[in-house]
Amino acid sequence: LCDCLAGFGGVFTATLDTNTLWPSLRRDVLLSWAVEGLYRPVWSAHTLVELHYCEERKRVRRGQSPDEALAAADRLVTMMGEAFADAVVPETETSRLAPFGLPDANDEHVLAGAFAAGAQVIVTDNDEDFPAELLPHGIAVVSPQVFARDTVSVNPARALTALEQMAQRRSETPLALILDQIEARYAMSEACALLRDAL
Questions:
Q1: Dihedral, CA atoms, 124, 126, 127, 129, nearest 10 degrees?
Q2: CA distance 198 to 169
Q3: Whole-angstrom Cα distance, residue 106 to residue 61?
Q4: More confident residue, 77 or 1
Q5: 167: which residues sit within 8 A by CB, 6+ positions away?
């Protein structure tokens, strides 16, 4: 993947699965790298529906009122749509593609979105849901950890700049703390090592 990323430069396209986008800190990290131009993110329209549902439920479990949780989930999806206007693959595109025969039919929209958008990878925590023999030629499945490592390796300085800007947005959270958190929470040790070397 690393060589492929380097070859595509800023136009490398990656489909982000719902489970990749659900943890807020990891989502912020990955999308900050996209803003910096290290890759182009895409997702199906249904992925945003799933993300909205998961975000709303997460916030209710953490003590927010249903109205507050709904408003926060609405805000998240709206902001993603505004920041990445060309990222959404509409349902009219994904639904017209024949089923790929995935083990879980609920994952068909992810692969269909990747195929329609010309993505080179699907980034997901559930690689077993996307058997290699069922994937169209040119699409691979990678974990968020591998994707993070290889994205950073393309240009560690730009990846670091993206996280510095992210740290400022997060009430000036220290960059060192963010690196510690994404390493501890999401096992992004290799990406963090590259980022620390770039400091």
A1: -120
A2: 21
A3: 24
A4: 77
A5: 173, 174, 175, 178
